[in-house]
Amino acid sequence: MKQCQECKQEVSSTDKVCPNCGRDQKNWFNKNKILIFIGVIILLGIIGTDLVVKSNSTKLIKTDIDVFKSDYYEIKITTIEEKSQVGKLSPQRKPQEGYTYVVVNYQFKNISGKPLSQYESPDFELVDKNKAKYAINFNGSYYYREEKSLDKFLDFDFNPGTTYKSAYVFEVPKKQFEAGGWQLIVNERTARFGIFTNVGYVNIN
Prior knowledge:
By secondary structure, this protein is α+β, with helices and mostly antiparallel strands. It has 2 domains: 2-54, no CATH class; 57-203, Sandwich (Immunoglobulin-like). Helix content is 21%, strand content 34%. The chain has 4 helices and 11 strands; from the N terminus they run ββααββββββαβαββ. The strands form 3 sheets. Strands 3, 4, 5, 6 and 9 form a 5-stranded antiparallel beta sheet that branches. It has a 4-stranded antiparallel beta sheet with strand order 8-7-10-11, with no helix packed on it. A two-stranded antiparallel ribbon has the order 1-2. The longest helix has 23 residues, at 33-55. The radius of gyration is 29 Å and the shape is elongated. The termini are far apart.
């Protein structure tokens, strides 16, 4: 036996309604199973989203960086970020153990007055405090551009006055990067087989 929540009369534990006042005897959880189910789904979604965000952490290092000019291009570095992975949720690409990704977002404009080939696009290097140079990680760059729907500029020439947005990804030792003293070297490729002209640099950290 139990007591009715409304009239306080004794009712059987098997009664779904009180025979005296007609009050529904189901507890809140039994009466709100659908709401509870929806709440659990929402909670699991929040937890899952939080795990994805943590696993794909991004640390903004610099933004609105200087504009560099050369004979061919006006190059603007827009942001430099540190990321734990690149790419869409599936597939994703992660750096090797003990390393981190450094992402350089940039835009460039052809100011030469003539079409330039894909082999004459801007080029970058990362240099640590010991002057060791790190080249671009092209696979990581491809995954990041796919993730952000950026221009890939692989199969076409750059016409005069056109501006493109793109990014390069570097894979560097995490502890060394966090120790500071890194620079981004901005280069210009002026020939298909690798003649590079330095046009400036950015102190990263």
